[in-house]
Each structure stands twice: as structure tokens, then as C-alpha cells.
Design goal:
The chain is of the alpha+beta class. 36% of the residues lie in helices and 14% in strands. The protein is elongated.
């Protein structure tokens, strides 16, 4: 079995970013590239991440546009809470999680 990195980069920046944290793993000639992060997560957590990404796209996908209408404050708080809760769930899977900047706040 391939050794897995210990760290995950979890973020949303117009799409879900879920990748191995390069600071915790460096593939080389004797250490092959690990599988995608999604492949080592439980199905329920993968589905939760996917739902989060879809909802973020719905509310923030056009945030770069001048006419973007931000979601209601309650929706923004809920999404931010879900982002952090997913980070915690990834941590419970045994990974060190590097969170993004949550620029949408």
C-alpha cells in the first residue's frame, strides 16, 4: 500500500479545493503519487463535500461580478459553519487540515 500524506488542503475558491498538502508529502522515485484525496475518504464525507461545493457555487460562483448579490447572512453563516465542520470531519479521519482563507466572509 502506498503511504499517504498526513496533511490535506481544504478550501473553496470558486470550486472545491481538496488536495494533499505538499508540505506533508513529496513524491519521488521511490514514493509514488498518492491517490486523489477523495478516493481515501468515506462516501458520506465525499457526498457532503460535493453538496457543499454545489451550494457555494450557487451563492458565490459569481462573486467576482459587480452585480453579485451576496446570500442572506444566515446562509453565509451556515455555509461557513459547514466549511469548518467539514474541515473538522477531515481531521477526524486522521489528517492534518490546512484551511483556506474563507474570503467569502
Amino acid at each position: 500500500m502506498t503511504a499517504l500524506p498526513t496533511g490535506i488542503w481544504w478550501d473553496w475558491d470558486y470550486c472545491v479545493i481538496l488536495d494533499w498538502d505538499d508540505a506533508t508529502f513529496e513524491p519521488g522515485p521511490t514514493l509514488p503519487d498518492p491517490p486523489p484525496v477523495e478516493d481515501v475518504l468515506p462516501a458520506e464525507l465525499r457526498a457532503r463535500i460535493h453538496r457543499f461545493g454545489e451550494e457555494m457555487e450557487q451563492h458565490y460562483g459569481d462573486a467576482f461580478c459587480e452585480d453579485h448579490v451576496p446570500p442572506p447572512a444566515a446562509t453565509a453563516r451556515r455555509l461557513t459553519g459547514e466549511y469548518r465542520a467539514i474541515g473538522e470531519a477531515l481531521g477526524r479521519e486522521g489528517f492534518t487540515v490546512r484551511l483556506g482563507t474563507t474570503w467569502w466572509l
